[in-house]
Design brief:
The protein is of the alpha+beta class. It has four helices and eight strands, in the order βααβββββββαα.
Length: 192
């Protein structure tokens, strides 16, 4: 069994004011004058951001990730592919025995030639055994910093589309706005 915990987005990756301008709201709307207005705008931005993160497999802002493993889900090449990207720092791998005692495992290297973050044992080393009742914990930070302009535009575009069509139920409406796929295409399959 594997579980991945990613710290939640604390705030939208694009400014609330930019979203207000996108929606054509009066100047000052969503600028802190009303907590209800602010949280309403933030909720649309956070929903759009979460959707894009799931769709792309990228984190839009740097966040802490903890991956708990009962066994190593290795690729056929013997590499361990991290489930989120891009990496913002080096991971830490701890082995935890059935009694809860932890051991830091350092005989690994980052495969910098891979298109997505992958870990491999250093030459001469092997993946350590995860004993019954034990686990491995891989902790790392991943996320884009800064957010590239095309992804910021995608967040704004999707949030505005959902906001403007929040009551829509007619057929023929698209769940995603025209042009979104073009903005996301360069990022699809890229896992730095």
């Amino acid at each position: 069994m594997a579980t991945l915990d990613v710290s939640p987005l604390a705030s939208p990756p694009v400014p609330r004011s930019a979203f207000g301008r996108r929606l054509g709201l009066a100047e000052g709307f969503g600028s802190g004058s009303s907590p209800a207005e602010d949280s309403g705008l933030d909720s649309w931005l956070l929903a759009a951001s979460a959707h894009l993160e799931r769709r792309l497999g990228l984190l839009l802002t740097p966040r802490a990730c903890v991956w708990r493993l009962a066994s190593w889900p290795l690729e056929s090449s013997g590499a361990l592919r991290l489930p989120r990207s891009p990496l913002s720092g080096l991971p830490e791998i701890r082995l935890i025995d059935a009694a809860g005692a932890e051991t830091l495992w350092t005989d690994w290297r980052l495969d910098s030639a891979a298109s997505s973050p992958r870990l491999r044992p250093v030459p001469g080393a092997f993946w350590p055994e995860i004993l019954p009742g034990g686990s491995a914990r891989v902790s790392f930070t991943a996320g884009l910093d800064p957010l590239p302009p095309d992804l910021a535009e995608a967040v704004l575009m999707l949030a505005a589309h959902w906001f403007e069509n929040r009551e829509a139920s007619a057929s023929g409406l698209s769940e995603t706005p025209f042009g979104l796929a073009s903005l996301l295409a360069p990022w699809a399959g890229i896992r730095l």
